[in-house]
């Protein structure tokens, strides 16, 4: 059983949603990326999404765009992201780490080289925002073949055909974007999100997490009542942006701890079979 599957199986047995923080690797400095992972896990992260910085993060709002700019300016690269994961793996062989980013850095490294290096580093899943499922079954098969889960996005505008396609090839979990627009937006209608999650679950047994726009503990708790995972990103990145490199891990961890308490206090509804 993969690390991701093991985490979701345990949490399902406990009746609890996973908490998944997102931060950009190399922000505010490449030298604190491993310390950031440590702080997030200590604060209650069940899985960590580590953003691979990219110069044109089109799905991201201004907050995460700036985090990519800071990381790139500080010299962060995909190879250094993998090195940071490998370093962290020496002390934690349990917490799943998912890379989230865009196709260009992976294309430049090469699919085979990336898959080999990511597996060796201890990466558990990869979400490539601009790899549509209907065009990348070979990619999904390639990383699945080395034990890495291909993770895909669905959104309020996803067609039934797109849901079917993602359900066929996704592993680990499916990331449901809670609203139209870019990351960091707000005004989630949790009733609509819950209905969308039910439609996705009718097609797959893969866990479904919800992200984008989850900016406070109260919203996280509402999502945790029905989703398999709650993803928190922009709120953490905002805290990092306001921090010095030395302070950033502790301050991001303190913010995440509030979300962790809220999520842990909620008993998730059992999915309808």
Summarize the structure.
This protein has 273 residues and is an alpha/beta fold.
Q: How is the secondary structure organized here?
A:
Elements: H1 3-14, E1 18-24, H2 33-43, E2 48-51, H3 62-73, H4 78-89, E3 97-101, H5 103-109, H6 111-121, E4 125-128, H7 137-145, E5 149-151, E6 153-154, H8 160-169, E7 174-177, H9 190-201, E8 208-211, H10 217-224, E9 229-232, H11 234-241, H12 248-264
Parallel strand pairs: 1-2, 1-9, 2-3, 3-4, 4-5, 6-7, 7-8, 8-9
Structure description:
- With 273 residues, the protein is of the alpha/beta class.
- It has a single domain, classed as Aldolase class I (TIM Barrel, Alpha-Beta Barrel), CATH 3.20.20.70.
- The chain is built from twelve helices and nine strands.
- Strands 5-4-3-2-1-9-8-7-6 form a nine-stranded parallel sheet.
- The longest helix has 17 residues.
- The protein is globular.
- It starts with a helix and ends in a 9-residue tail after the last helix.
- About 2% of the residues have low confidence.
